[in-house]
Design goal:
The chain has about 160 residues and is an all-alpha fold. It contains eight helices and no strands.
């Protein structure tokens, strides 16, 4: 199974490569290079604040070992971000093969290009990661509760019934 730290490192590596690529610079009319750098910076800050890039006992995987639902949601968000970065790379490769920079059409106000849509989705995904960080800091240990049986509560039913009724 893939770990959070592996996904974060992969996303940061891909993001760094894409921001440094000349293909992205050719599309500054659609989304400025500074906006891409801002999102990469937000991802780095999120990773550093939450410790998502660390390994071992300080890793996010270790801290979320008893909260698998939070861990799986974080992994889903990071996999989605990785997919978006892969999509961006493919779009940039297709655009550099098909068109020269002079032939790039800027869309009307209502139309968004594929690159603009990918940027919007990346912004939303990183926003969701920031929202998850509040949950990550105080995870409920639901996995531990899932292992309890109804038999564990049997001795207390009499007292609970007396208290309620």
């Amino acid at each position: 199974m893939v770990t959070v730290s592996e996904l974060v490192r992969s996303c940061l590596t891909k993001f760094t490569f894409l921001v440094a690529s000349p293909a992205l610079f050719e599309h500054v009319e659609e989304i400025s290079l500074q906006l891409w750098k801002d999102e990469m910076g937000r991802l780095r800050i999120w990773s550093a604040n939450i410790g998502a890039h660390q390994r071992g006992q300080s890793s996010l995987d270790f801290r979320l070992r008893d909260a698998s639902h939070i861990k799986s949601q974080t992994i889903n968000l990071l996999q989605g971000l990785e997919d978006l970065l892969n999509d961006l790379k493919e779009v940039l490769e297709e655009a550099s093969d098909d068109e020269s920079p002079e032939n790039v059409e800027i869309p009307e106000d209502d139309d968004t290009t594929e690159i603009q849509q990918i940027h919007k989705d990346i912004v939303e995904t990183i926003h969701h990661l920031y929202r998850m960080s509040m949950i990550i800091r105080t995870p409920a240990h639901h996995d531990r509760l899932l292992g309890t049986d109804k038999l564990d509560a049997q001795p207390f039913k009499h007292w609970a019934h007396k208290r309620c009724c």
